[in-house]
Design a protein that fits this description.
mainly alpha, elongated
């Protein structure tokens, strides 16, 4: 088990597993749903990790863009970030912590939404009939957006590396 936790790394533990466990526990306490798994530790870890992954994507593509608009947060250019993070390793740690807070914020927003949905579903029974389809569609859309986001940042990194390589070749 310790070897497994070492392999997934601190980023995955604090940004996926930890928020997934907290969310699953809170959901079971506040709503009529339960994601708690007590009989199989491996299934529990995978489930909580997946929940955290979904929460992280919600944070990246739903809650964080709205927070940025409200708080008017400014970023440094991405190439500057790449260069600075090579020189100062704490930048990566701070961004890892930011990711955890984003995911926990998404967990709180999702918990409020799920609690509201649970209340509505008790009043409108047809919501229970369509919830699996709605969840499937939502996750499909969310994973497509997440994939696009990863491609966007990978492309930025590739351009940055290629520009550096072009400069070296020109010298």
């Amino acid at each position: 088990m310790n070897n497994f936790l070492e392999k997934i790394g601190t980023y995955n533990i604090f940004n996926y597993l930890f928020p997934g466990v907290i969310f699953a526990y809170a959901v079971s306490e506040i709503t009529n749903y339960s994601f708690l798994i007590e009989d199989n530790i491996l299934v529990a870890i995978v489930t909580y990790y997946f929940i955290g992954l979904v929460l992280s994507a919600i944070g990246d593509y739903i809650t964080w863009p709205n927070i940025k608009k409200i708080r008017k947060i400014k970023y440094e250019p991405y190439p500057d970030f790449l260069e600075a993070s090579k020189k100062d390793k704490k930048i990566g740690l701070m961004l890892e912590m930011k990711g955890m807070f984003d995911t926990l914020t998404a967990a709180l927003v999702s918990l409020v939404f799920l609690n509201f949905y649970d209340f509505l579903a008790t009043k409108c029974s047809f919501l229970r009939d369509i919830e699996l389809w709605a969840l499937t569609f939502f996750l499909f859309y969310l994973f497509i957006k997440s994939s696009e986001g990863k491609i966007f940042y990978a492309t930025k990194r590739i351009r940055h590396v290629n520009k550096k390589e072009d400069k070296k070749e020109a010298e």
